[in-house]
What does this fold into?
Amino acid sequence: MTEKEAEDFLESNNFRVAERVICSTSISAIKAARKLKYPVVMKIVSKKILHKSDAGGVALNIISDYGLKKEFLRMKKLKGFEAVMIQRYREGAYILLGLKKDAAFGHVVVVGAGGIYTEIFRDVSFRVCPITRQDAEEMLKEIKYYEVLNGARGIKYNTKPIIDALLKLSSLSVKHKNIEELDINPMILGKNNGTIVDARIVFS
It folds into this structure.
């Protein structure tokens, strides 16, 4: 699935996903940004590019038509370019969520510190599906990043959206047994809600 298809799928299963618009021209991108209201994020749409950040296919906190057009023209030169996705820019804690099908255990749900350094820090916790709310709460407390969420830097986040998302992922593993991998990175956690801004799904 493309990112938009993955996010549409999650939205149809009651996950909170950031509003997004696919644009193939700089004019349509500017119109979308004005509708969503600046600042916005621009991401490349391409079936050939898996890691958008590494390829230069993500621009954060764009604040003007001029900046947006400049980024659009830059991304258009990237190999594999098809279009761009415009989303409203959000700030908060970055959370990794996911499902993976293990050959021995079946579906496993994961939570951890999200963002571009996920693979470096590997601050994650796993459970075999299905999970309970208690399982989800324990998973969250097992990661080091929980200290940040719990107010270590002066901001205490409401972690209920993470718990709810983990339970929904567990339910998806039953409803859609052909999911091989489902990666949400990140869900951006504000003080009161969590919004998915990037997702990838592989079906068997």
